[in-house]
Recover the amino acids of this structure.
């Protein structure tokens, strides 16, 4: 036999327990799922909050102030907001780090691809584009912060006036289109992610499997419809 | 019927391979895919050429030797069967058929379509066993097992280790194989003593050789035994639980 028995791709290191867990791919996927749930929660709350735009300028602006004052006089000003922001930043960092390292691991696992082509029978479009939709969502997130949080991508930005800033931003058609496309891609990411996370966490039961698909589809649809409606409403002049 | 074949030819793991094309006339639609390859090889041998190397043993879907990629699908276009159970009637007259070996970093090509799948054995060695006293076989009904549990364990034990899950996975992951091998022991009472160390050791060994799971579901579609990705979730759950269980067990040891 010309057997060239394979040698391990990976060499294991002995590290303290939580890090050792994260060193494994199953552990990384668990972390991706947990951070994914945190991000899903954020995306949902963020959308619901922003829908206040339809209630008018005062409501949305008051909401912005209220976010800073969560905890009232019990805690220092904006401290709860910053705690939540820190959690979100940590979730993003871990989610992206795990995604990047797992992708590298998978590339190594098949250095020579199928020369005669592949015919996929199960992997849907959303699942196969997770890395692309993820990276675009990240780029969009940075642009979104520059546009509506820091204001450096929004020439008419006024601090403390979210309603004015949103209307100014979405009145620029190309920017509105960016928001619409990015949110559709986020929806595609969620369509696979919100189904896949149950599998990664081991929250699987043949009796709830159909509900998982339903949940992920409904969640993705809700986010896309809610978020995309806002730039469209501004462009259509419903909100001004 | 006639078929036009495009088959991967490669001398050994250290040489580059390439596709070679062959035309085969007198193929009967009742032939199995492997019998069709046998006919090709007879033709090649009588023409003084090197026959195509491919693996097979049982030719009835139980040994797991015969897996190849047929038109970009592991074990070909038919669901729930191995290459040896695929018949030429699945193809139309004059069909173009591309045959390629499993592709994985850990499945080096022995020759042509034959690959070395011994990395899967490394996973079994890491925990695919139970501690059983030697001697005469114990009375089979001594340990009661609920019917549902024995059915689920049996479904997992149907895995023939062919490697189609790895071949079909866009990430080259062996999670379905490993999950099945873990589940058929972890579900049963006989598998309990090593349950938590088994899952950790088999998962870690798997990851030494293969890619990681992104829940595409290609493995489940390619599996000749139609093993469900539900077992992968079960493996993930036991792996996470083991992080705590193993620590508790160590603590008890003092
Ligand atoms: C608010 C934004 C995001 C949300 C709500 C989100 C949500 C999710 C969820 C729920 C999962 C499933 C986890 C699992 O299968 O265990 C996931 C997977 C993934 N995410 Fe995200 N994600 C977001 C942003 C990102 C970003 C910025 C990136 C990359 C730059 C990214 C890349 C990925 C990748 C590569 C996967 C893996 C797919 C897989 O293995 O099945 N995601 N995401
Ligand atoms: S030859 Fe045994 S499974 Fe196909």
């Amino acid at each position: 036999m010309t057997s060239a028995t394979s040698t391990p791709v990976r060499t294991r290191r002995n590290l303290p327990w939580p890090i050792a867990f994260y060193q494994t791919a199953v552990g990384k996927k668990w972390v991706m799922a947990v951070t994914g749930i945190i991000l899903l929660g954020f995306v949902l709350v963020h959308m619901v909050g922003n829908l206040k735009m339809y209630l008018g300028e005062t409501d949305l602006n008051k909401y912005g102030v209220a976010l800073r004052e969560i905890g009232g006089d019990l805690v220092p000003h904006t401290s709860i907001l910053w705690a939540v922001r820190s959690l979100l930043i940590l979730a993003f960092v871990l989610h992206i780090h795990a995604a990047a390292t797992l992708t590298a691991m998978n590339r190594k696992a098949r250095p020579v691809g199928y020369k005669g082509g592949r015919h996929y029978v199960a992997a849907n479009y959303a699942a196969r584009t997770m890395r692309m939709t993820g990276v675009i969502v990240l780029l969009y997130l940075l642009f979104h912060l520059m546009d509506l949080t820091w204001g450096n991508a929004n020439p008419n930005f006024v601090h403390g006036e979210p309603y004015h800033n949103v209307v100014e931003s979405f009145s620029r058609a190309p920017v509105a289109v960016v928001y619409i496309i990015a949110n559709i891609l986020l929806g595609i990411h969620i369509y696979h992610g919100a189904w896949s996370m149950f599998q990664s966490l081991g929250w699987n039961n043949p009796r709830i499997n159909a509900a998982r698909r339903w949940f992920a589809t409904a969640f993705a649809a809700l986010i896309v419809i809610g978020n995309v409606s806002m730039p469209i409403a501004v462009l259509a002049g419903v909100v001004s | 019927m006639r078929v036009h074949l495009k088959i991967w030819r490669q001398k050994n793991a250290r040489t580059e391979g390439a596709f070679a094309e062959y035309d085969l006339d007198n193929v009967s639609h009742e032939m199995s895919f492997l019998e069709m390859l046998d006919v090709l090889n007879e033709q090649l041998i009588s023409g003084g050429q090197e026959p195509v190397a491919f693996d097979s043993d049982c030719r009835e879907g139980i040994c797991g030797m015969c897996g190849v990629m047929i038109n970009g699908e592991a074990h070909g276009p038919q669901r729930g069967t191995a290459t040896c159970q695929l018949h030429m009637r699945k193809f139309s007259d004059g069909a173009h058929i591309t045959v390629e070996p499993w592709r994985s970093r850990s499945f080096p090509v022995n020759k042509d379509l034959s690959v070395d799948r011994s990395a899967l054995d490394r996973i079994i060695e890491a925990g695919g066993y139970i501690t059983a006293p030697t001697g005469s076989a114990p009375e089979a009904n001594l340990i009661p097992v609920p019917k549902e549990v024995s059915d689920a364990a049996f479904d997992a034990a149907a895995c023939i280790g062919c490697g189609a899950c790895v071949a079909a996975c866009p990430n080259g992951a062996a999670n379905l194989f490993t999950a099945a091998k873990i589940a058929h022991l972890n579900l049963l009472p006989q598998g309990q003593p090593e349950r938590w160390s088994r899952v950790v050791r088999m998962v870690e060994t798997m990851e030494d050789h293969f890619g990681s799971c992104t829940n595409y579901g290609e493995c489940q579609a390619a599996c000749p035994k139609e093993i469900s990705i539900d077992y992968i979730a079960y493996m993930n759950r036991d792996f996470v639980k083991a992080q705590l269980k193993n620590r508790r067990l160590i603590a008890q040891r003092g």
Notes: The domain at 3-110 of chain B is CATH 3.10.20.30 (Ubiquitin-like (UB roll)). Chain B has a mean pLDDT of 95.
